Amino acid sequence: xxxxxxxxxxxxxxxxxxxxxxxxxxxxxxxxxxxxxxxxxxxxxxxxxxxxxxxxxxxxxxxxxxxxxxxxxxxxxxxxxxxxxxxxxxxxxxxxxxxxxxxxxxxxxxxxxxxxxxxxxxxxxxxxxxxxxxxxxxxxxxxxxxxxxxxxxxxxxxxxxxxxxxxxxxxxxxxxxxxxxxxxxxxxxxxxxxxxxxxxxxxxxxxxxxxxxxxxxxxxxxxxxxxxxxxxxxxxxxxxxxxxxxxxxxxxxxxxxxxxxxxxxxxxxxxxxxxxxxxxxxxxxxxxxxxxxxxxxxxxxxxxxxxxxxxxxxxxxxxxxxxxxxxxxxxxxxxxxxxxxxxxxxxxxxxxxxxxxxxxxxxxxxxxxxxxxxxxxxxxxxxxxxxxxxxxxxxxxxxxxxxxxxxxxxxxxxxxxxxxxxxxxxxxxxxxxxxxxxxxxxxxxxxxxxxxxxxxxxxxxxxxxxxxxxxxxxxxxxxxxxxxxxxxxxxxxxxxxxxxxxxxxxxxxxxxxxxxxxxxxxxxxxxxxxxxxxxxxxxxxxxxxxxxxxxxxxxxxxxxxxxxxxxxxxxxxxxxxxxxxxxxxxxxxxxxxxxxxxxxxxxxx
Length: 605
Hints:
By secondary structure, the chain is of the alpha+beta class. It has a domain at 341-604: Alpha/Beta hydrolase fold, catalytic domain (Rossmann fold), CATH 3.40.50.1820.
């Protein structure tokens, strides 16, 4: 009997995220949408039994993580209102299910980082006093003190060492090519720049050794991210990576003798374990990607999520003594590899000869038949498409579309130079990479060159707006801008301080670069639009405000366009009241969005 593979069936395949072991590394926490919404689960790493802990307490869209307390009986988690990302922090008792609100800041974003070594205080980041900075809360009495007071955001990793210092990744300049490791005394009395390879390198730490002496660090100073260990006493660094492929330090073993890193090689992510004394490495080779990789059970095991093009997300454990992998939680679906379409990894030349890597997914091809095609642009802009299971690509392929997902310039995974190519050039070279993705599709014998569309979310939505306006002559037949940006300055004006900093890093200030900002905004070129456009946006989006889609829609109406599902000069517009910057991890919201994409492109292409 042939299985019926519907949008609902594909989109309902659950996925896990935010794996985190407790202090003893015998329990694993993770978020999982098995019930169609995100819940918190705990897995006993010895018995491999797991259980659902929460019952609807978590937000539908997860934008901030959680922290284990030292007693392994509590976690802190965050909750916002309908996706607005104005998180409050809650203390949750795993055994009694009691939830206590620790912060109440409806106008601020708050992100828990770590519990103090004595288990009494919580380190968290917050915008409660303006810019994103670090704070410390006494969990029992809820007393809060501000730890850092920088005028630039302290986002990224922050950890509490046994030596009384809090280490954090921070950039005290506007140069996006730079970031460093800083430390501040837990009482705020002293601040120190700890680790900087150069003032034009991104240098970060990811873990602190058990004794507090060593930092697991990563630097892209050589042009490729390399992992190493930094001695906070001697100030010496020992590099472990050979610089051939991107490698990122992740975590020390509990005994401090090993370091696990992730190697990003041609859109696949593999764990490597380095012996810190000899420098020897042990590679775990398999297709696809592994992520959230951590040591477990006295350093005898690695625990991680794994995915491959025809393998949905699975939870796996690897025995480092026997070199055996065990899938603990396999894909929760009756679909098998034979039911999924394979993903090819290709490269195509762009306008200047640079090769752009991409994943290509096709339906079952019939000889002589021409298929509609889509270019799917990722968010970020510093994102990346991997050779992994991609629900969106599977859905479109099963509905008869060819789908190309390019890692345009500015993407991670291909070295420092490539990632920095779109600095001061948003909507320039990277947009041309999208145009040339279309040209690549046009040359495929099984693609109908008259039926090619473009879509994406966030930065991908920004790029979609631009493709249909500034680059309208490329000949796109339709486009869907999901949670996109239509004008850089209007987005900037409504952004949180840390998001403003991010835009200034990438594109300079508006005052000094007004011509550039205006030229790289779709609203400036809206009179050029020819193809029908779909706009989808959450009303509570704090990253790409809903006004970005509203003003584009309103301008279209001024130009004589009408809202409608067919005909020339028509657009389609959808707002979600209870959603922010997308809610892709909530399965019902995911299905709803995917159906909108499909309905639009089936009619328009």
